[in-house]
Amino acid sequence: MGMDAATKAATLIESLPWLQRLSGKVLVIKFGGNAMIDDALKRAFAEDMVFLRQVGVRPVVVHGGGPQISAALKQRGIASEFRGGLRVTSPEAMVVVREVLAEQVGPEIAGLINEHGQLAQAVSGETGGLFVGTRRGTTVDGEQVDLGLVGEVTSVDPAVVLALLDAGTIPVISSIAPDSTGQPLNVNADSAAASLAIALGAHKLMILTDVAGLYSDWPNRDSLVSSIGATELEGMLPSLESGMIPKMTACLEAVDGGVPNAAIIDGRVPHSILLEAFTPQGAGTEVVPREVAA
């Protein structure tokens, strides 16, 4: 039967203060997880981006492509190896990573948004000097591990993104960063999204994931945290599940870098982005800066 008219009207009016607060603001959304694989969720995501832009928000999408990259590597007989949750990236794997992100994942997201009008453009961290990266290894069980062509974003020049936003476009950005010699590096998309949110002076960073949010006492489902201060989160980081660590670290980096708020939200729920942006309950766990929480 659907929602009655009074409930619909109440829902629309409830969104008014959020619409006012977000109008003209940059929102960086890290697209990933199930929302990236499930066709219905992909469509809902595209609608959310169009809705945000239509109400005067300036959405920016950052994506990786883990599952698609693994599938493409397998197809070419290249093994996928992960150390400490990060993909070991050989030069031959890097060619595939770059191809999948730039020719498959980015254009697909942009294409779904563009079913609603010419609104989105897929670009890479290599476009217009957007990202510069530096190679990084990792530590596994106390030992240094070389990850190959894996890096982190060490500088951001947001000019290309700002130009797209000023033209009314929704930028869709793949997480590749060339190093100072021009060698493309595979960078973690959560972390890249945080760096970009800081550089753009974004109002908010949202990271789509496949959980309802952060639990203070997992597996107790009543321990879902709706809001947490950066200092408290920092203390919890080592005890979190390994897949959650890069996401919560990215939220922490963003708020410590001046983004007023960062959230991980449940990408398995259709339109969770709109719920997070325009309702008081939100749709995940929000991280707030240290001084706000104190």
Quick structural gist:
This protein is α/β, with parallel strands linked by helices and 294 residues long. It is built from 11 helices and 18 strands.
* 3D shape: globular
Rg (CA only)? 19 Å
Largest sheet, spatial ordering of strands? 5-10-2-1-13-17-18-16
What is the overall number of helices? 11
Structural class: alpha/beta
- The proportion of residues forming helix, as a percent range, comes to 25-40%
What kind of assembly state do the chains in view correspond to?
single chain
Q: Give the terminus-to-terminus CA distance.
A: 46 Å
Question: How many strands, what sense, and barrel or not for the largest sheet?
Answer: 8 strands, mixed
Structure description:
The termini are far apart. The chain has helices at 5-14, 16-22, 39-54, 66-75, 91-113, 159-166, 189-200, 230-236, 245-256, 272-278, 290-293; strands at 26-31, 58-63, 82-83, 86-87, 120-124, 131-135, 138-140, 143-145, 150-156, 170-174, 176-178, 184-187, 204-209, 214-215, 224-225, 227-229, 261-266, 284-288. Helix 3 crosses helix 5 (91-113), helix 4 (66-75) packs across helix 5 and helix 7 (189-200) runs parallel beside helix 9 (245-256). The protein is built from eleven helices and 18 strands. The model has no long low-confidence stretch (mean pLDDT 93). The longest helix has 23 residues, at 91-113. It is 39% helix and 26% strand. 43% of the residues are buried. The strands form five sheets. An eight-stranded mixed β-sheet has the order 5-10-2-1-13-17-18-16, sandwiched between helices. The protein is globular. It has 294 residues and is an alpha/beta fold.
